[in-house]
Amino acid sequence: GAGGLTAEQMYSVLEFGAPDRKQHVADNYRRLMERLATDSTVNVANKIYVMQNYAVKGAFNAIATGSFRSEAESVNFAESAAAAKKINGWVEEKTNNKIKDLISPDALDELSRMVLVNAVHFKGTWTYQFDPSLTRPFPFWLSETESRDVPMMNIKKHFAFNNFEELGFSALELTYGGSDMTMMLLLPNERMGLTALEEKLPTLNLAELAGKMHKQEVE
């Protein structure tokens, strides 16, 4: 619903390109939501709470419901305790009671006009489970010369893996059973290379990295 300079700034921060790509962004999000709807490990829900006696424009509501699956509901923010209870109740329901008290009554008052809520609940099970009996001490390095033994899980299976030597790290992908979701782990090749890896993160294309990884036995 934003326009002018506000829209330009939002699209710049979110790296969506120019504001005239609004429909393109909405279409991509709709396809993402449709894909996630078939995945049993994740539940994504969006909702718009609007101050009572304020109407949402038809065009905005059509995009919100059609592309973002986000219905609008009228609420009286002046009654902050009741409004917060309603919003928090919805969030708890959509996150299987994992997220409670998301919004405080103090955050709402008679001047509040709209609250956008996004709830994500994820519960996945590894395709290959870690055997607790294989957990054993390994050195965790605190500096180049100082380490401390800590319990670490251990597994030896075929995973998507690659050592990106030119980037200074290795990447491993763990899959979840019955899901397209994966967890990508990045490990610096240098013992104290975590800071350098963190600095690279904003420039990395994870989809591109995944395309260069290959199944191989990894321990």
UniProtKB/TrEMBL annotation:
Serpin domain: residues covered: 1-219
Key words, A-Z: Protease inhibitor, Serine protease inhibitor
Matches recorded under Pfam families: Serpin
Transmembrane segments: none
A GO term for molecular function: serine-type endopeptidase inhibitor activity
A Gene Ontology term for the protein's cellular component: extracellular space
SMART domains reported in the protein's UniProt record: SERPIN
Keyword Membrane: no
Protein family membership: Belongs to the serpin family.
PANTHER family: GH10112P-RELATED, SERINE PROTEASE INHIBITOR, SERPIN
Name used for this protein in its record: Serpin 10 plasmodium-related inhibitory serine protease inhibitor
Organism, as annotated: Anopheles merus (Mosquito)
